[in-house]
Amino acid sequence: GGQPRNVQPFSDEDASIETMSHCSGFSDPASFTEDGPEVDEEATQEDLEYKLKGFIDLTLDKSAKTRQAALESLKSAFSSKILYEFIMERRMTLTDSIERCIKKGKSDEQCAAAGLACLLCVQMGSGIESEEIFKTLGPVLKKIVCDGTASIQARQACATCLGICCFIVTDDITELYSTMECLENIFTKAYQRDRDTSGVSSAHNAVLHVSALLAWTLLLTICPMNEVKKKIEMHLHKLPSLLSCDDLNMRIAAGETLALLFELARETDADFFYEDMDLLTEKLRALATDGNKHRAKVDKRKQRSVFRDVLRAVEERDFPTEMVKFGPERMYIDCWVKKQTYEMFKEILGSGMQYHLQSNDFLRNVFELGPPVMLDAATLKTMKISRFERHLYNSAAFKARTKARSKCRDKRADVGEFF
Fold it and tell me: Where is this region: Disordered (predicted)?
């Protein structure tokens, strides 16, 4: 059983090779070199699958470091490639390995296993196979999330995994409500901070509360409207207390959740009225213009940027539309529901988010992008400008910037003449 140890970790070089024999048109344009040699896709696919089989075997190794390295390599592969057929044949083996690592592993191994569980469901999409995976892993994830003796990092990773996997696979409304209740039991403990003088609710738990709140918010976006109304009534008057939290991420998560709740409330009732609106807008405005010297400049800049948008959402019902580019396509994020969903999946997929937006049927369905755009290698190659053209463009842009700056400097030099 010592042979698999010689398998090298999944690298960025592996990720850059286009190996999808069933969807080769989904390559990133940058992956094609100018006049480069043709790649044998079948051979590279076989090589990749051989490596992945070795990693799956290593998830059962006696060494915790070996198991964790194998999990991380599988995560890297799953986030950068569509491997539906390969995973379909080995989904139960992968599920068993993940379950074992979450149950028996230490903190880092549990985090890696939870991350791999997310990616497994993202790859499989919302089918019967994913439901089987969640039926096996759901109870294990809930147990870790609620286990006060487990590490905060492991509980945080399992809370995120629980929310994303439930979002992907759950058609059973009872299971959805049960998962939301589990997450509620975690983040509602943050409400007690102002009343807790013993210091039990320390900043140490803030990362767990943030993950639970964001995972719960994601699930709220797929709830029936009558349940959404109940949750809004339950939490809308309590969430503002988290805006005074010492942890920056907790303040931001609470602010963005408030914006989303107001958006959902106004969708269900155009005349929605919030009693403490003046007090809430005063708090949001203070955070949007915060100048406390004891806070880091980077944190203040990030906080002010987020809360300017939150304040506009609460006061003016406005959302600053963002555009996401991936390949030849564009996606517009024009509401808080879409923004929160995008941010959650981006956290899991990382740099592979753009690739999955192009290729993953489930994600394209979530963001209403339609079927994948099929582009062959020749089309993608023509879309890429040559190095010489890129050099000319950069030179012209540099000259234009220089001229514009020179004009601005001239205006500053002459400014005294106008007074």
Answer: 1-38
Residues 95 and 178 in one domain: yes
Residues 366, 306 share a domain: no
Per-residue pLDDT of the chain (419 residues; tens, 9 = 90+): 444 454 455 554 454 443 333 333 333 433 333 444 455 677 888 889 999 999 999 999 999 999 999 999 999 999 999 999 999 999 999 999 999 999 999 999 999 999 999 999 999 998 899 999 999 999 999 999 999 999 999 999 999 999 999 999 978 899 999 999 999 999 999 887 544 443 334 567 899 999 999 999 999 999 999 999 999 999 999 999 999 988 999 999 999 999 999 999 999 888 888 888 999 999 999 999 887 766 778 888 899 999 999 999 999 998 989 999 988 899 999 999 999 999 999 999 999 999 999 999 999 999 999 888 876 555 545 555 566 766 776 777 777 777 776 665 554 444 444 44
C-alpha 417/C-alpha 131 separation (Å) is 74
Three-state SS letters, 61-116: CCCHHHHHHHHHHHHHHHHHCCCHHHHHHHHHHHHHHHHHHHHHCCHHHHHHHHHH
- Which pTM does this prediction carry? 0.79
- Domain co-membership, 147 together with 52: yes
Domain end (from 142, 174, 190): 190
Pair 125, 174 in one domain = yes
Domain count across the chain: 3
Q: Looking at the structure, tell me whether residues 268 and 311 fall in a common domain.
A: yes
Cα angle 298-304-307, degrees, rounded to a multiple of 5: 135
Q: Quick check: is 390 in a domain?
A: yes
Identify whether residues 68 and 129 lie together within a single domain.
yes
Q: Which domain holds residue 343?
A: 322-397
